[in-house]
């Protein structure tokens, strides 16, 4: 996986350009701190030479003062460089994170079915975190330390060409040896990270499934799996730590060797009267200083592999295009609208090409009427709801809302005009208010309370401990399944859609919540077109029309009263079979 250089450049330009001011600040701080690091030893060298040669003693306090001031300034500029570096990195990576989240959200459901939330989290957070090093440290440090390294070597060449040549040779050898050794540490650390990802994945799964695990007495088996992973993890960790320690020892050994070379060289040159004692100190000091950029460059190049993998994965994600074609076309009616399915054929991605989830489905529901959809599990009922919101596009046929084909309407407008209450209401760890408005501060409490009033849910709201301020806990704790459905109805009501789709929860509700729900549904459906995917026959009482699906095909469609009066109709037989009282 080799990423062309211009792709790094494009990424940097994209995310650093908007904060060029901070980047300029960072570059100035970095270059100044490097220059000061190289200048200061020269003052010390002058200090030592002045003492040894008995030069102007009155200049010494000034030299000492200048040395201290420059040392202080070096720290100030290093600190500023770190501050600007972190600011630039955070801003750039947050922008990238936002772009990735926005991109993932606009991808259609087939993408989300193919990628687990954990995988997307790893991309949006893990990979972007790795990139923050790229923005803040990799470029800056490789660039900064590269300049420091070259600066030190140039000064050494000026001080004494022989010392310059020897230490340039040493720097080259040290850098290549350390880079060669680092490859030995990469594989064990990659394996360590892989096991770590597996470990946290398993842990997350076990915590999410704790109720089932405990209820089924599966704790010992789950713990066994947990211990097995831990057992496998430890030796890999030891191996990785060992590889890093070898690398550390090698680098300490190399720089000790560098110091020995510098000392021997300085002593030899001093004896030959080729350099002053101050210059001898300079050679020794600069050799010591060399270790910093060499170590840093090694570390950063090591990170580059991880960064390269992250850039590759992020680019791959960003290049995925939504399958749904955006259109600005036909506007949708703002009042109750007709719903038409005309010869609709649909199958999910990856499904057998001979099978259809929906097979030539046609029906037409007049505006303001309610359609009840019945069918065995897996017959395609929820698929109809997903298609109406264009979570997927159909393979052939046409779906219309009012007069317009939904394939030709703007997606955001479509999703504004169609309200869906699913079986699993998604609640957030936030207040009831935020759960109702989806964090939109423009929806005032008055509007929410009016909606509650219209849906006859004000008494229910009053029964919550803190009304709209009631905080829902993790995994929607604080509300029962029935209450969550009530909340979902208010959410949809606040959208004021033309079409409401209710994919009913099949779970049993207590009579009181069921009564609340029924009344709220009545109010929600008034003056709107409705589609109810019914699990409770009770709900069908309000349906004007009935559609029965079997393996994706419409086996019966018609007016509810008419179907009821025909004893041969599947609907009438279904009701009879369930000995349900007819309305
Ligand atoms: N994302 C998907 N990818 C592939 N197949 C799917 C997908 N979603 C649903 N299916 C399949 O499509 C068929 C219809 O599913 P659908 O959810 O519409 O059924 P349903 O009638 O609503 O069932 P239930 O009453 O159990 O909710 C099923 O066979 C299901 O396995």
Q: How would you describe what is shown here?
A:
- The chain is an alpha/beta fold.
- It has 2 domains: 5-319, ABC transporter transmembrane region fold (Up-down Bundle); 339-577, P-loop containing nucleotide triphosphate hydrolases (Rossmann fold).
- 64% of the residues lie in helices and 10% in strands.
- The strands form 2 sheets. A 6-stranded mixed beta sheet has the order 6-7-8-3-9-10, with helices on both faces. It has a 4-stranded antiparallel beta sheet with strand order 2-1-4-5, covered by helices on one side.
- A hairpin with a 2-residue loop joins strand 9 and strand 10 (553-559).
- Helix 5 packs antiparallel against helix 6 (161-208) and helix 8 (219-271) packs antiparallel against helix 9 (277-319).
- Adenosine-5'-triphosphate (ATP) binds at residues 113, 348, 351, 357, 375, 377-383.
By helix and strand content, what is the structural category? Answer: alpha/beta
Query: If you average the pLDDT, what whole number results?
Result: 83
Low-confidence stretches: 579-583
- Secondary structure tally, helices: 18
CATH topology of the largest domain: ABC transporter transmembrane region fold
Number of strands: 10
In CATH, the homologous superfamily of the largest domain goes by the name ABC transporter type 1, transmembrane domain
Bound molecules: adenosine-5'-triphosphate
Could you say what the CATH architecture of the largest domain is? Answer: Up-down Bundle
CATH class of the largest domain, named: Mainly Alpha
The gross shape turns out to be: elongated
- Tell me the series of helices and strands, N- to C-terminal: HHHHHHHHHEEEHEEHEHHHHEHEEEHH
Strand content: 5-15%
Helicity range = 55-70%
The end-to-end span amounts to: 67 Å
**Main pleated sheet:** 6 strands, mixed
Radius of gyration: 35 Å
* Number of self-contained structural domains: 2
């Amino acid at each position: 996986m080799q990423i062309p250089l211009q792709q790094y450049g494009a990424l940097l330009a994209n995310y650093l350009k908007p904060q060029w001011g901070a980047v300029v600040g960072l570059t100035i701080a970095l270059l100044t701190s490097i220059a000061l690091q190289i200048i200061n030893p020269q003052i010390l060298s002058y200090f030592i030479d002045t003492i040894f040669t008995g030069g102007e003693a009155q200049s010494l306090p000034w030299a000492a003062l200048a040395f201290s001031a420059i040392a202080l300034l070096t720290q100030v500029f290093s600190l500023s460089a770190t501050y600007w570096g972190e600011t630039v990195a955070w801003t750039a990576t947050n922008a990238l994170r936002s772009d990735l989240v926005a991109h993932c959200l606009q991808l259609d459901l087939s993408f989300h079915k193919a990628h687990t939330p954990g995988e997307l989290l790893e991309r949006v957070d893990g990979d972007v975190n790795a990139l923050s090093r790229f923005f803040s440290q990799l470029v800056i440090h490789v660039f900064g330390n590269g300049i420091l390294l070259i600066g030190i070597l140039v000064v050494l060449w000026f001080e004494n060409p022989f010392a310059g040549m020897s230490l340039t040779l040493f720097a080259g050898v040290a850098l290549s040896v350390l880079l060669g050794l680092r490859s030995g540490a990469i594989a064990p650390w990659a394996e360590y990270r892989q096991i770590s990802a597996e470990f946290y994945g398993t842990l997350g799964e076990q915590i999410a499934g704790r109720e089932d695990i405990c209820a089924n007495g599966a704790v010992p088996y789950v713990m066994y799996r947990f211990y097995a992973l831990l057992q496998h993890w430890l030796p890999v960790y030891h191996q990785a730590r060992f590889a890093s320690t070898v690398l550390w020892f090698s680098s300490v050994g190399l720089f000790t060797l560098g110091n020995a070379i510098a000392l021997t060289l300085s002593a030899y040159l001093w004896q030959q009267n080729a350099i002053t004692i101050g210059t001898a100190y300079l050679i020794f000091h600069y050799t010591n200083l060399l270790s910093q950029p060499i170590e840093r460059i090694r570390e950063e190049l090591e990170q580059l592999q991880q960064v390269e993998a992250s850039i590759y994965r992020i680019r791959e994600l960003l290049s995925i295009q939504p399958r749904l074609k955006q259109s600005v076309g036909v506007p949708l009616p703002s009042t109750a609208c007709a719903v038409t399915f005309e010869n609709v054929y649909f199958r999910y991605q990856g499904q057998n090409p001979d099978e259809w989830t929906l097979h030539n489905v046609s029906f037409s529901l007049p505006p303001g009427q309610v359609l009840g959809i019945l069918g065995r599990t897996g017959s395609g009922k929820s698929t109809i709801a997903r298609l109406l919101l264009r979570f997927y596009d159909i393979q052939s046929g046409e779906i219309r809302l009012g007069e317009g084909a939904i394939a030709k309407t703007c997606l955001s407008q479509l999703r504004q005009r169609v309200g869906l209450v699913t079986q699993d209401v998604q609640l957030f760890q936030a207040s009831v208010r935020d759960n109702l408005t989806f964090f939109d501060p423009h929806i005032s409490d008055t509007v929410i309370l009016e909606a509650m009033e219209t849906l006859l849910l004000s008494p229910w709201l009053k029964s919550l401990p803190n009304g709209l301020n009631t905080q829902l806990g993790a995994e929607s704790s604080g509300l029962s399944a029935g209450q969550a459905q009530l909340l979902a109805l208010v959410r949809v009501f606040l959208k004021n859609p033309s079409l409401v789709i209710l994919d009913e929860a099949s779970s049993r509700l207590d009579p009181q919540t069921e009564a609340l729900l029924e009344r709220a549904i009545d109010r929600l459906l008034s003056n709107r077109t409705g589609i109810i995917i019914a699990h409770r026959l009770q709900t069908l009482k309000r349906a004007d029309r009935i559609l029965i699906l079997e393996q994706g095909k419409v086996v019966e469609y018609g007016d509810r009263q008419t179907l009821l009066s025909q004893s041969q109709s599947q609907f009438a037989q279904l009701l009879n079979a369930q000995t349900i009282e007819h309305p």
